[in-house]
Specification:
single chain, globular, Rossmann fold, 5 strands, 301 residues, 5-stranded parallel beta sheet, alpha/beta
């Protein structure tokens, strides 16, 4: 899909759900980045959610029809910069995404689906009625949506100078998180089998965490080192100033022009931090525990 105009490359934030990405989006917005106008309370960009959080669609196209993914990126890019005047095929693409959402809902493989009904059509209206966004008034633009990591390869190909922030949180805390939507939506794609009575969900969640992180590290090696940042949420909460300085350097900004004192007030240690310590860790294999340590997290077992 050929781009009609070239816009400045975005900064994109992704992670497994529940990894603390909201804080990183707040930091970007506080610094002066435009991250979208249709956001939910965790600051997910809902246009990206509408177009891309579609496992069935992705599984259909990611190998043999990558042009469909490029088309979605083009539509999203033009919507974000306020330059979307959809052609007929683009309008059909948007409406097809909304219809799929209306039928299948938020979690395509999970019980208790949300996002059905008119929710997706509100996203369509906000996208089509969006006024011209002058991104030149901002330091830069980008967005946060945890599921972006699934599309990192395509984002990197589409945006020549993309900067990508991947947020990682303690794997064992993540294993006991109630937010397992990505496990349901993308687990099969990454080789984590669907639930079986003999495999507890925390074990499957940790396997998904490991496979996802390993995949991201492999993909990041194809990027220039200054365009990928592996961000540790736990460290951000414990040592906010140091981690925020890393983010500022990664964004290529002058540290003297950023109010670090204000930014370091944003993170705080969540109550869920260390929740794994109340659990029986014997259900995990030794190599699974070691994989958590390999990514820089201490394990008190």
């Amino acid at each position: 899909m050929e781009r009609e105009k070239q816009y400045p490359a975005p900064v994109v934030i992704g992670a497994l759900g529940g990894s603390g990405t909201r804080i990183y989006a707040e930091i970007l917005r506080e610094i002066g980045f435009y991250i979208g106008s249709d956001l939910n309370p965790p600051l997910d960009n809902l246009w990206f959610t509408l177009l891309f959080k579609r496992p069935r669609w992705f599984e259909k196209h990611y190998k043999n029809n990558k042009s469909e993914i490029s088309k979605a990126l083009l539509i999203f890019e033009k919507a974000m910069v306020g330059d979307l005047k959809p052609k007929f095929d683009e309008f059909l693409f948007i409406m097809k995404a909304a219809t799929e959402w209306s039928i299948w809902g938020n979690h395509f493989h999970a019980k208790g689906n949300s996002g059905r009904g008119i929710w997706p059509f509100f996203r369509v209206l906000s996208m089509l009625l969006n006024k011209k966004t002058d991104i030149s008034k901002y330091i830069g633009w980008g967005w946060k949506e945890p599921n972006t990591h699934i599309y990192l390869e395509y984002l990197n190909d589409y945006f020549e100078h993309l900067r990508y922030i991947y947020v990682v949180r303690h794997g064992l805390d993540m294993a006991y998180s109630e937010n397992q939507a990505q496990l349901y939506n993308w687990g099969k794609l990454l080789g984590v089998k669907e639930s079986a009575n003999s495999v507890p969900q925390p074990k499957r969640a940790l396997q998904f965490w490991i496979k996802t992180n390993e995949r991201i590290i492999t993909l990041s090696q194809k990027m220039e080192s200054n365009r990928f940042l592996l961000a540790n949420f736990d460290e951000l909460c414990l040592n906010p100033r140091n981690e925020i300085i890393k983010i500022i350097h990664f964004l290529g900004l002058n540290i003297n022009q950023v109010n670090i004192d204000k930014l370091e007030c944003l993170p705080s240690v969540p109550k869920s931090s260390g929740r794994y310590q109340k659990q029986d860790l014997t259900l995990f294999d030794k190599d699974e525990i070691e994989a958590v340590r390999k990514f820089g997290f201490k394990v008190n077992d």
